[in-house]
# Entry
Amino acid sequence: MNDNPANPRCFALIPCAGNGSRAGTAGPKQYERVAGQPMVWHTLAAFAAVQRIARTLVVVAPTDGFFERNPTTSALVVPCGGATRAASVANGLRELRRAGAVDGDWVLVHDAARCLITPDLVNRLIDACEKDEVGGLLAHPLADTLKVEAEGRVQATLPREDKWLAQTPQMFRLGMLRQALENAGDAVTDEAGAIEAMGLKPMLVPSGATNFKVTYPEDFAMAEAVLKGRAR
# Structure
């Protein structure tokens, strides 16, 4: 099998094994209904609409039964979730290899709870990164003033001119990302951080403020408003 294909394919990897403790939901937040559907359905629908995605793999927790009860997705669902996001992604990369992906293929890692992603944004990332040596991520320039806190008080104010909010998908070669995660361990909170630890510089691809991750209870109402607005 050619690990450096002349025409690398694009695969999507969706970590979906978290419990969403900050969201205040009774179960995993990615299965909460938003605009009439479980949140993860919106996420998967966006990737299913991108023709350049060869296959989407969803990483769920070993005890997860959601997709068994709701077998309506064409994505490959694998119960190999780990204790951390980095572990889940690393396990998912191994499963993609078993499914036929090679080290030279691209992998777009995307949060299941970032349900406002659109096919246009996914295509924008692929267009920007497919010829790049490193890869990159969707991101949004920071608009707010950034404060450093100590004991509940402001310790310092940081300049915001060069600060960006990291989003997903984050797109890197499978082999490069696998090696980066092995080197970085479970401490990294996103794939770009692992790539940066190798001394590489991922590309920042401008996205928008609506591609936010549903994290806190109030985020559900905002996500629902955006999705209902798009349906009009």
User: Anything to note?
Assistant: DSSP finds seven helices and eleven strands in the chain. The first helix runs from residue 39 to 48. The CA atoms of residues 46 and 118 lie 5 Å apart.
